[in-house]
Write a structure and sequence with these properties.
The chain is an alpha/beta fold and 154 residues long. It is built from five helices and five strands; from the N terminus they run E-H-E-H-E-H-E-H-E-H. Helix 1 packs parallel to helix 5 and helix 3 crosses helix 5.
Length: 154
């Protein structure tokens, strides 16, 4: 199952970009044997302001995919449960999973409503750069959990 982090906005050179890249590379390498990956990041920008315009640039990347949107009203999975969900989707034959991080104002309601799932990082509001890092890290952690690697809580 190919995994994509699809995000509105482009990150400038920053420590967050380096962290995302590191976790994506680790998840891709560790996930091959498990049928998970590659993991990639797609950044999109709209030439027009607003959620509807952002949805227009996101939609072409969602066709035929299982879509999970990141939203504070979503489900806050413990790491093992998130790993189990990724494994379940893979085992059900999902070929491509796209995890969407919207713009500063959130996601268009139609795009939000059409998603297959919703993921929250807790009730706090996080900067988009950190949300990407946390999502990439949780994907990597999920891969290592599914591979039977040691987990810090065990």
């Amino acid at each position: 199952m190919k995994l994509t982090i699809l995000a509105v906005g482009r990150l400038a050179r920053s420590p967050e970009v380096d962290l995302v890249r590191t976790y994506v590379e680790r998840a891709t390498a560790a996930g091959r044997a498990l049928g998970l990956g590659p993991v990639d990041v797609i950044e999109v920008e709209s030439r027009k302001p607003g959620k509807a315009a952002e949805a227009d640039v996101l939609r072409p990347h969602l066709a035929g995919c299982h879509v999970i949107v990141c939203d504070e009203r979503g489900t806050a999975y413990p790491s093992r449960a998130f790993a189990a969900e990724l494994g379940r989707l893979r085992d059900q034959g999902v070929r491509r999973l796209v995890l969407v991080i919207g713009g500063a104002d959130g996601l268009d309601l139609d795009l939000f409503a059409s998603a297959d799932g919703r993921l929250a990082f807790g009730p706090q509001t996080w900067p988009h750069a950190l949300a990407r890092v946390m999502l990439a890290e949780q994907i990597y952690r999920s891969v290592t959990i599914l591979a039977g690697g040691p987990y810090h809580r065990d």
